[in-house]
Design goal:
By secondary structure, the protein is an alpha+beta fold. Helix content is 46%, strand content 19%. The N and C termini lie far apart (88 Å). It binds adenosine-5'-diphosphate and magnesium ion (MG).
């Protein structure tokens, strides 16, 4: 059900319980589970994310997952934005529920693809293993996350940080959780999109021949072809198994990527030296010639 609340840019809202005020800077979400705004808190002089909804149950569900992940004792807390208060305010006739979250710098992977920016193979492997870690944690606690997609992963290239968001549709299934193998498939679709750099339209019905063609034409790396093939035909039973193969790709790719960039750096340095040499010799010749002409 689509909700019709909309917060105007420039207005300030104040939470009923915590009394924190936020100025609405920009709407950034696409009207999924709730509405996402970039907001400014003048007291703390900081930018945050405000996620608002008239539907309290989906909002609190999402908040609870974020809270669990960001307060977990292991590395997972680095993979999701921190959440702060859950509160509400009244706007006209409506009570609007919201939570406040850390604003993560970077861009979601959907925007990377739409802007035609390249995501390196080792980064795709790292993104995949972060997703596997988060999903393994949620599965163990009986939560099903069906939101694996490019718009729910924020990549900050400068700080090398990957954040997973979009827990609005998480369902609590307890012991009756379906096997991970059913959901690993959406990871395969994500890999196809990230590795081809295009919103390729692929689905479960894609037969062996068409998948083979896609892999041959668009994804040349043999280890990636193998992973996608295994995902398509249900060979992975757990997130852990996928993660192991991804880490293999990550380590081999990161080494060759570093070697390549070191080589590139050397070539750039060599070019810079030649350039300086050329300018130096050029100016000497110029002064010499001008001296001869003027005397
Ligand atoms: N904490 C955050 N920091 C930065 N950007 C965010 C954050 N949370 C969401 N976004 C941006 O807002 C978009 C929509 O967020 P999402 O949680 O998927 O909302 P919806 O429920 O409307 O789909 C994301 O694709 C991302 O670009
Ligand atoms: Mg979303």
């Amino acid at each position: 059900m689509r909700e019709c609340i909309s917060l105007m840019k420039g207005i300030t809202i104040t939470g009923k319980w915590e009394k924190h005020s936020y100025k609405i800077l920009k709407k950034i979400g696409k009207d999924g589970v709730g509405q996402v705004y970039r907001v400014y808190d003048p007291v703390r002089n900081n930018i945050f994310i405000l996620k608002a909804s008239a539907n309290i149950s989906t909002l609190t569900g999402e908040y609870a997952i974020f809270k669990q992940l960001s307060e977990s004792n292991n590395q997972l807390k680095e993979y999701t934005p921190k959440v702060y208060e859950l509160d509400h305010f009244v706007l006209g006739q409506n009570t609007i529920h919201f939570f406040i979250q850390e604003y993560v710098f970077g861009m979601n992977l959907g925007d990377y693809i739409r802007n035609k920016e390249k995501i390196q193979s080792h980064q795709v492997a790292k993104i995949g293993s972060v997703i596997c870690n988060v999903l393994e944690y949620l599965d163990d606690r009986g939560y099903i996350y069906g939101g694996i997609k490019e718009d729910h992963i924020i990549l900050d290239m400068y700080n090398d940080r990957i954040s997973i968001i979009g827990f609005g549709g998480v369902a609590a299934c307890g012991e009756n959780i379906e096997p991970a193998s059913h959901r690993i498939f959406s990871l395969g679709i994500l890999f196809c999109i990230l590795l081809t750099g295009e919103m390729v339209s692929v689905n479960r019905k894609l037969g062996k021949d068409r998948l083979r063609q896609l892999l041959k034409r668009r994804i040349h790396h043999a280890a990636w072809q193998n992973i996608i093939w295994k995902i398509w035909f249900g060979d992975y039973k757990t997130w852990y198994d996928v993660k192991q193969d991804l880490m293999g790709i990550y380590h081999s790719n990161v080494i060759s990527f570093r070697r390549k960039s070191q080589k590139q750096e050397k070539e750039e340095k060599c070019f810079a030296n030649q350039f300086v040499y050329f300018i130096g010799v050029g100016s000497l010749v110029f002064f010499f010639l001008s001296y001869i002409i003027t005397h």
